[in-house]
Write a structure and sequence with these properties.
Chain lengths: 689, 214, 228
């Protein structure tokens, strides 16, 4: 049995020879006579098998005797490498043996140990690397513990199995026994000397004491599990044969893996060392148990907790996970828990105690890396960019004071009004001369020229809003006057709610203007018919194109039977009208007429008077001959009047209009130049800076 | 599906109305379909009239609620309601009891609507003038430059200044060419609008879009 | 006082109130006028719809001797009244039926008009430009046709917002990828669209100036009449 010292690499500064020297020295010393009363009491109460001076075991006596002979001389040589026992030398020569590599280098005993696969939660864990004969029933339990440890510390097996004897850690120097920093997995124990297994153990330790002098042997021994001597492996027999014969019958304190607490109790109960004869390292631990300590039941071996040892790093790494969990009580077998209070105080294992340790597990480790698809990555990037933009402070545009804006607006308004009013009051003489007429206006004029009083009525659609009354009035009045001049009956309708009222006004003003200019009379009340409003937009246009009498059953004044009147009697459909003239300010409305009505018009032309805004989008229909003539805007109205060689209501407004439009051109140009100048100045300023 | 009955009605009535474009009206075999289509279209026009009344009801109700609101009531809504009920009363009087007053009713409405709307349009002239001054400061790129250049050219054309310069050689040809330029772009825009309308209509007829179910 | 003069004074007052918005900004009078304007327009439309649309249309059906027409009239009334149920949340689902008919028929009419009115018409118009037999200078006509064709196609290319899924992967700058041909066409289309939109803007500007000129003329005429 042996206790593998700490990792040599773990504490390189410590000389190997001195590491195990002190405690051995303390063994060699005479028992301290000044054992405290407490210790004495504790030890005295331990049991019937007390140690006395006379009862000092042979092996201890021999150690002390030899110490006397080697006073001072051997102190520095005790840990020398050349004094390493053979078995340790053998370990040194095979540093990889026993590794968790499960390699071929593992020695047979280690293989056996691994095969045992002991339970980790068994109390009294054996030290790493402890070699126990596979057949030794005494060592099976702690070997199982060892296997469990090994399973948890596969990465450090070589270090565990190949200690450097010269590099013993400090805990050996302090005379303490490895184990307490193992959180209760490693403990010293004393076994009853009657145990047959201990005979072999003693021999082995005797051999250590004599030849090695640098190791502490620790052996978990079950008192009721005797180990037959014949089952001792060969290498242990070698140890035994090397041990002096006089040591064979001595009792040695063994280290038991029975729990952290009560190591001194174990010593007392198992070995019965007299208080005065306790070595220092044991007597230091022999303080009386505090009130909080467990009270051993009568007849049960009391334990005494040893001082905590410094656990080497490699041992820590080899510990099973459970050993690092909090609570040293985890090392105690739950069934052996001693009650501390109440009527069951002092009884062991009467109440089942839940082993809380099993409820705690090392938290699972999750990878911090997310697996993202390309799409998710792009979305994440977009989100990131959006969030980043949000995080950036917004540049608040410099707001100009309201006063200059109002001032500018007022100034511009007054300027425009002043210019237009002055032009209106004091004409500049810009009377429109002979204006060039676009082809579509020429077509319009020719189409209207072709109708006559005898023809079917003309359908006039007044589809513009009151806001466009000015422009549409100037544009359409010459056309309507042209129709009136030919005494053509006019049927009016509208798809705009305000259209019928505007049509009434338009027809009346056109008739009045015609009468003023040509003395020709055209009575709108008789020669025109206002069919009013058609709701539903394009739907009503389709209905009207298919069945006009159904779509517009009454006039604006609410007169029925209109379709039986003379000039509508022959109108059954759209082809009953000689022409359809649409007055519109909207390309959308014009498009609706072209799409819904034109296909059902037969050979009748579709003519349009539009605002200047709608004309660009209606021109393609003109080019495709879906519209047969067009007059657009103020300019179109004036031009149409010129073609008819008549004055138009637009004439007095001509100069104001022309000046206004040219003013707009000038403003845009001036604004452009101003902007250009600003850019140039800014660039120059930038270059200057 | 929301409003399955309504969707079925929309699709069925729409298909019947659409078939009328493809079936010659003078074919006796399809006379029933043509008649059905005209009934459907006529009914839709009547429904459009009812829809106008519903919209007006909603408008009046909204202003009534705004007037009665406890927090920040819109006091000006009283003028809207006043204008509405006065006009409604005048119209009812004219159409129900005095048809001679219908023309006066139209004239009064014109007197109110034309000055207000035309003046609002006139405000646009000043606003556009102020905006035009800054148009170069705000717009960059090909489209804005072409747009502004085109605006200048067509303003000049609309002013009639070029139309009176008959002494200038080839002015008529230039004006014709200039006035023809928007045709190409306008045709593209019209085709785009038509295609968009076609798709929107088909989505409704396929039931993919149901604006009536909301 | 003459009614006509009264109406003119009212018109002048309304004009000045609205135009003075440019000087005084949003003010009580301006709000009063605009709110009243909305009310008058709504009242007028209500009267027009009732007496100009619904009563004539429904009365023709209901007073007819044909039961089918009467039934159609009754159905139209019921459906129309169901539309009012959309005003209340609990009954709005009942209004979905007439609304669905309205939307379905409207969609069909839009489809038919777009196809037969615009798509066929404009495509035929573009093709017709290449009919060199129609008269005029064939070369100029060909150039005209090419110009319109390029403008039309490039404008449509500019509005191409859908593309194949493979090409739809975002580029580094976040813009969807277009084929080089479409890119070139889109740039050309930008020019044509800019020209068209510029012409439309000029038209709006001209219309606004016309309205301003007309209002100034109205004020001038009114004042000059009293001065004289």
């Amino acid at each position: 049995m042996r206790l593998v010292p700490g990792d040599a690499q773990g504490e390189p500064e410590q000389p190997g020879g001195s590491s195990g020297e002190d405690w051995l020295s303390s063994l060699r010393q005479e028992p301290d006579a000044d054992v405290s009363p407490g210790q004495e009491d504790a030890l005295g109460q331990a049991g019937s098998e007390e140690f006395s001076e006379s009862e000092t075991p042979d092996w201890l006596s021999r150690i002390r005797e030899r110490a006397r002979m080697e006073t001072g001389a051997q102190a520095g040589e005790s840990g020398a490498e050349d004094e390493t026992p053979d078995w340790m030398s053998g370990l040194d020569s095979e540093p990889e043996t026993g590794g968790a590599d499960e390699g071929a280098a593992s020695s047979s005993w280690l293989v056996e140990m691994e095969a045992a696969g002991g339970q980790a939660d068994e109390p009294g864990t054996a030290p790493q690397g402890a070699a126990v004969a596979p057949s030794d029933p005494v060592g099976e339990e702690w070997m199982d513990e060892l296997s469990a440890w090994r399973a948890g510390a596969e990465s450090e097996p070589a270090e565990a199995a190949s200690p450097v004897p010269g590099d013993l850690p400090g805990w050996l120097d302090d005379g303490t026994v490895l184990g307490e920093d193992l959180d209760g997995n490693l403990q010293l124990a004393q076994e009853p000397p009657e145990s047959p297994a201990e005979a072999g153990s003693e021999d082995l330790l005797a051999g250590f004491a004599v030849e090695g002098e640098s190791t502490v042997v620790q052996q978990p021994v079950e008192p009721d599990l005797p180990a037959p001597a014949e089952e001792t492996p060969e290498w242990l027999r070698d140890f035994s044969s090397q041990a002096p014969a006089e040591n064979s019958g001595s009792v040695i304190p063994l280290i038991e893996t029975a729990g952290l607490e009560g190591i001194s109790d174990d010593i007392e109960t198992g070995v019965g060392i007299a208080a005065g004869e306790l070595p220092d390292w044991l007597s230091e631990e022999g303080s009386p148990p505090s009130s909080g300590q467990e009270v051993e039941a009568p007849g049960e071996p009391l334990s005494e907790e040893l001082a905590r040892a410094e656990l080497p790093e490699w041992v820590k790494e080899m510990r099973p996970i459970e050993s690092v969990l909090p609570g040293e009580a985890a090392a105690v077998e739950p069934s052996q828990q001693v009650e501390q209070a109440g009527p069951l105080a002092g009884l062991r294992g009467v109440l089942p105690i839940e082993d809380l340790k099993t409820h705690y597990r090392k938290p699972p480790v999750y990878s911090a890396r997310l697996r993202l698809s390309e799409k998710q990555h792009s979305h994440a990037s977009m989100l990131e960019s959006i969030v980043a933009q949000e995080a950036q402070p917004l540049l608040i545009p410099r707001t100009r004071a309201r006063a200059p804006q109002v001032f500018t607006r007022v100034l511009v308004t007054l300027f425009i009004f002043a210019v237009l009013t002055v032009v209106r009051i004091f004409p500049l003489g810009l009377v429109p001369g002979a204006l060039l007429a676009p082809p579509e206006l020429d077509d319009m004029f020719n189409q209207i020229e072709q109708v006559s009083e005898q023809n079917a009525p003309v359908l006039l659609a007044v589809d513009y809003e009151p806001g466009r009354f000015g422009e549409m009035y100037f544009a359409s009045l010459p056309v309507i006057e042209h129709l009136m001049a030919k005494n053509v009956p006019i049927v009016v309708l509208s798809t705009v709610p305000t259209g019928p009222a505007l049509a009434q006004r338009l027809l009346q003003e056109a008739a009045d203007d015609l009468r003023e200019k040509t003395d020709q009379t055209y009575d709108p009340a008789v020669q025109t018919l206002n069919l009013g409003y058609l709701p539903g937009g394009t739907i009503s246009l389709l209905e009207f194109a298919q069945l006009p009498s159904r779509a517009a059953p009454a006039t604006l004044e609410g007169n029925f039977d209109i379709w039986k009147q003379p000039f509508l009697a022959n109108v059954k459909g759209l082809d009953g009208f000689s022409q359809v003239i649409v007055l519109t300010d909207s390309a959308e409305t014009g498009r609706a007429w072209i799409e819904q009505v034109k296909p059902l018009m037969g050979t009748a032309p579709l003519l349009m008077v539009t605002s200047a805004q709608a004309a660009p989008l209606l021109m393609p229909y003109l080019q495709s001959q879906q519209v047969n003539g067009m007059v657009s805007g103020f300019l179109g109205g004036v031009t149409y009047g010129q073609w008819r060689h008549v004055d138009t209501p637009a004439d007095p407004y001509w100069e104001s209009y022309q000046v206004g439009v040219l003013l707009a051109v000038g403003v845009i140009l001036f604004g452009g130049l101003f902007s250009l100048a600003r850019v140039v100045i800014r660039r120059k300023d930038g270059e200057g800076e | 599906m929301r409003s399955p009955v309504a969707t079925a009605f929309a699709i069925a009535f729409g298909i019947v109305a659409l078939l009328g474009y493809f079936i010659p009206a003078d074919l006796p075999a399809f006379s029933s379909l043509v008649t059905l289509r005209s009934i459907i279209v006529g009914g839709a026009v009547t429904l459009a009239g009812f829809a106008s009344l519903v919209a007006i009801w909603g408008l009046v109700n909204a202003h009534w609620q705004k007037l009665r609101a406890r927090r920040n009531p819109d006091r000006y809504s009283i003028f809207m309601l006043l204008g509405f009920f006065v006009t409604l009363g005048f119209g009812l009087y004219a159409y129900l009891w005095n048809p001679e007053a219908i023309s006066s009713f139209q004239e009064v409405v014109n007197t109110f609507q034309v000055p207000v709307e035309t003046s609002l349009m006139a405000l646009l002239a000043v606003v556009l003038t102020m905006a035009s001054f800054r148009v170069f400061q705000r717009r960059r790129g090909l489209l804005p430059v072409v747009f502004i250049g085109s605006s200048l050219v067509y303003l000049l054309v609309n002013s009639g200044f070029l139309h009176s310069q008959q002494d200038f050689p080839s002015i008529a040809w230039i004006l014709d060419a200039v006035q023809y330029l928007p045709v190409a772009g306008g045709r593209g825009i019209l085709l785009g609008i038509a295609l968009g309308s076609l798709m929107a209509g088909l989505r409704i007829l396929f039931g993919a879009e149901r604006p009536y179910s909301g | 006082m003459d009614i006509q003069l009264l109406l003119e004074i009212a018109g002048l007052f309304l004009t000045l109130v609205v135009l003075l918005y440019l000087i005084f900004g949003d003010n009580a009078l301006f709000r009063l006028v605009t709110y009243s304007f909305i009310g008058v327009a709504a009242g007028y439309v209500a009267i027009l719809v009732i007496f100009q649309v619904l009563l004539p249309r429904l009365s023709i059906l209901l007073v007819s001797q044909e039961p089918v027409l009467v039934l159609i009239g009754v159905v139209e009334i019921v459906l129309g009244l169901m539309l009012f149920l959309k005003l209340w949340q609990h009954t709005s689902f009942l209004g979905a039926l007439p609304m669905a008919i309205l939307v379905g028929v409207g969609a069909a009419v839009t489809i038919g008009g777009s196809v037969f009115g615009t798509l066929f018409g404009q495509i035929n118009g573009t093709i017709g430009l290449f009919d060199l037999q129609k008269g005029g200078n064939p070369l100029l006509r060909l150039l005209e046709g090419i110009f319109v064709l390029v403008g039309t196609v490039s404008t449509l290319a500019y509005f191409q917002f859908t593309m194949r899924s493979k090409a739809a992967l975002p580029e580094q700058d976040g813009n969807a990828r277009r084929s080089p041909v479409i890119k070139v066409l889109a740039v050309i289309g930008q020019g044509f669209i800019g020209i068209t939109l510029g012409a439309m803007f000029a038209g709006i500007y001209a219309a606004a100036i016309t309205a301003l000129v007309e209002r100034i003329g109205f004020i001038f005429d009114f004042v000059s009449r009293f001065v004289q």
